[in-house]
Each structure stands twice: as structure tokens, then as C-alpha cells.
Amino acid sequence: MVENLIHQPFGNVLLVWDRIGDYHSARFLALEKIVGHGKIFISDLGGADSLYKWNNPLSGHENYIPLSEKSVEKRAFWQRLFNFVSLIKKKNIKIVGLAGYGRTEYLAFLVVSKFLGVNVVLFAESWYGENKLVNKIKSVFLKFFCDGFLVSGNRAKSHFENNLQIDSSKIEIGYSVVDNQHFKNQMDVEKENILLCVARFSPEKNLKKLISAFKNSQLSQSWKLQIVGGGPLKNELEKEIGGRTNIILSDWLSYQALPLLYAHARFFILPSSFEPWGLVVNEAMAAGLPVALSDQCGCADDFAEPGSPFLFDASDEKSIAIVLNKISKLSPMEIKELGKKSQLKVENFSPQLWAKNFLNLAFG
What DSSP designation does 190 have? Predict the structure, then answer.
């Protein structure tokens, strides 16, 4: 269906995120490869933010057009709205992909797009939210202003279908993807007994429980725990570590440095108590690592089958320790085989899938 529709004179596509990084670039380039150069435009709200130190790989691309030179957190509502409208008119934009509706700018973009007759595909990772009144209001709003929903995975799809009452024909999964090939580049590196966690040092990542569970697990007798990310809880985590030399805290690493980081490790863990998805899990799996996940990771339903021995209760430190003890009993060959299964599973989550499903919604 996509192949027949993209060649029709339907107009151009605009993708909008908070701030462009390598993850967004991979999606943009996959879509451009299908549709053709000059038909896909990409924008962000601002060129910097206080949370991520991303470099924008598309900064020199002729079809990258920022909506503001200010950082994402700084107010520039009217400038962004004016530039958004101007871009739609000047570039004959007929389809917009928007990164949710959590910012005032995005709400305005949705309203303006409806007024201008532009179809909107909404990107979403949310799978939570049990308040029926709030969900009813969201449902009415989203049904009126959005034409399709590209969601992260099965949990999000279920939320949009069951809680927000969105027609399943307007939902596709595969929003939360990375450039899998990028993370395969260092796979010939010699492995070490490292349990790797890539997560910002913030409360929702549940790192204190992970450190405590690791200290009390059999795995700590012969493995290292390496946590990479940096963030506000660094001092607290150092106190929790208590001088243990086999628990390592590392600051944020660039996108280019990540493949080598994953290559040295044997197993990956994400213990989050709240996680809309968890793109670092995609990265680890693409690099050939088996993964242990908390039940609060949005990707758990897609990457860990029910009853998986490596799925644990994020609120229960003993549950984490039990999983770590299971890992300690695995042989290097068993871990390698689990890693191969990880890699095969994540191949279904790729920028190419994202582009295909985006076009299915855009032209559906």
C-alpha cells in the first residue's frame, strides 16, 4: 500500500520533536529513503536543552528547519507557532508527525494543523493512566485532532485502544526504535563480566535498589555492575555503593561511544520504577546483549515474554536480587545464545519499521 501511495502528488511531510538527536535522525533518514529527498522536512522546538547533550546530526541538512534558536525550556511559543505555520504553507506540508501533546506548542500545532487541513500522526509512548475522566477528555481531544497514532509498542497500543477508545485501524506500533546497525559495530570486542545499566541518575531509574540488590546477590562475587548516565543522584548512589570497587558509576557517554560500551558487557539491566519505553534496551539488544527488565519498563511486553526469568518487580529489591542470582548461574555460552535471541527480536523494531508504519498511517 505504501509503495503505491507515496508517489502520488499528496504534498510533503514535516516531523517535529523537542530537539533533534541521533534517534530522530535515524527515523528521518529511513523515511527520506522511501519517499525521496526533498519531500520530508524535520524541525525541533529548540537547539538545546538542559537534560541531554545531544549533537544534532542533521544540523547541516537542507530540510532541517528549527522552529526556534532558543533552548527547549525557554519560552518562545509565538515564534515557534509562527514558524510552524509558515513552514506548512511554504513547503506544501500535508502531513505532520508530532511528538505527543505534552507541551503547549504541540497543542497549538494540533489545532492549527486541523484548521489548515493537514493530517497529523501523533507519536506516543504512554501506556499508563487509569483516571477514566482524564482518559475520556483525552479521547475526545485526540480523536478530533489526530488522524493516526504511531505508538511505542504493545502496552501503548493497548492503552490507546482500551483506555482512550482509539480505533485500532488508526494505531501502529514501532515508534520507539534505534539504528540497530549502529550498535552492532563493535561486536567482536572481548567480553567482560559486566552487568551494564545505562540510565540517568534520577529517582525513577530505581538505581539505589539495583545497587543494593547487586551487593546482596551472588552475581557480585565475580561480576561488576557498571551504571552509565550521570545525573542529580550521583552523591546518593556513591553513598549506597559504600566504596565497593566492583560497582562503577560513569557519566553520560555520547552516541558514538555507546557501541563499544555495550560490546564489553555481558548482560544489560534496566530497573526503572517508571519508564515509558526504554530506548537503551533497544540499543543493548541490538548490540547482542540479553536484558533483564523491570515490570515498569514500557518495552517489557515487547521484549520479555510473560514469565520471563529476567523480568522483575521494580518495587521489590528481593525480586531484583533473584534475577541477578539467575544470571550468575548462566554459562558464557548460555549468555551468548540469549544475546543472539535479543538481537533477532529487536530487528523487528527498526527505523525502517517506523517509516513504513508512519506512511501507513499518513496515507491510510
Answer: P
Beta-bridge partner residues of 13: 40, 95
- pLDDT value at residue 53: 66
Grid look-up 527515523 returns 27
In the chain, how many domains are there? Answer: 2
Verify that 324 and 287 share a domain, yes or no.
Answer: yes
13 and 153 within one domain: yes
Question: Which residues span the domain enclosing 320?
Answer: 181-346
**Cβ atoms < 10 Å from Cβ of 215:** 17
Given a contact cutoff of 8 angstroms between Cβ atoms, the answer to whether 126 and 159 are in contact is: yes
Taking the C-alpha atoms of residue 27 and residue 279, their distance in angstroms, rounded to an integer, is: 13
- Report helix angle 132-145 to 104-116, nearest 10: 40
Residue 1 has pLDDT above 60, yes or no: no
CB 15 within 8 A of CB 42: yes
For the purposes of burial, counting CB atoms within 10 Å of the CB of 349, is it exposed (0-12), middle (13-18) or buried (19 or more)? buried
pLDDT tens digits for 181-219?
999 976 678 899 999 999 999 999 999 999 999 999 999
Locate cell 535479543: which residue?
Answer: 342
Residue 118 maps to which CATH number? 3.40.50.2000
**Tens of pLDDT, residues 325-362:** 999 999 999 999 999 999 999 999 999 999 999 999 99
Q: How many helices, marked H, and strands, marked E, lie in the chain?
A: 14, 12
Q: Are residues 138 and 263 in the same domain?
A: no
pLDDT of the residue at 49: 63
CA 122/CA 135 separation, integer angstroms: 16
The 10 Å CB-count burial string (b at 16+, else e) for 129-150 is: eeeeeebeebeeebeebbbbbb
Q: Kindly state whether residues 150 and 188 are assigned to the same domain.
A: no
Q: Is the pTM of this model over 0.85?
A: yes
